[in-house]
Design goal:
Helix content is 32%, strand content 26%. By secondary structure, it is an alpha+beta fold.
């Protein structure tokens, strides 16, 4: 496995992972997805197999100093439980410049609780 910062050539692999998870935002508009993954304050990283295929990605937003938010992390079903997700976060964290990462999950509590962390009650507000 190789880790790299996002480049446009990774976009279709990321879109495929999002489709597999049932996440519609990136697949709905590839140009918007690319704009999001390259926006100021965004750190986007990928995990690649030996053939250069995207097997995972993480997308974080950060102020570059204190706070980062993990917006999305996905690993292909065939590569889960092999350290890919952990490697993505450990690779991305210093790239954000932040001291901490906040996130919301409803499916991966066991994974995220394996990191040094504090759990807080939170809300996601929609317009």
């Amino acid at each position: 496995m190789n880790l790299a910062q996002y480049e446009r050539g990774h976009l279709l692999g990321i879109v495929a992972l999002c489709e597999a998870e049932g996440w519609p935002s990136f697949p709905a508009d590839h140009e918007r997805a690319h704009a999001v993954l390259t926006a100021p304050g965004v750190t986007a990283v990928v995990a690649l197999d030996d053939d250069g295929e995207v097997i995972g990605f993480a997308y974080l937003q950060s102020d570059g100093h204190i706070q980062a938010h993990l917006s999305e992390l996905a690993v292909s079903a065939t590569h889960r439980r092999k350290g890919v997700g952990r490697a993505l976060l450990e690779y991305a964290m210093p790239l954000t410049g932040a001291q901490r990462i906040d996130l919301v999950t409803d499916t991966a509590e066991a994974f995220y609780s394996s990191f040094d962390h504090h759990t807080f009650k939170g809300f996601r507000i929609y317009p």
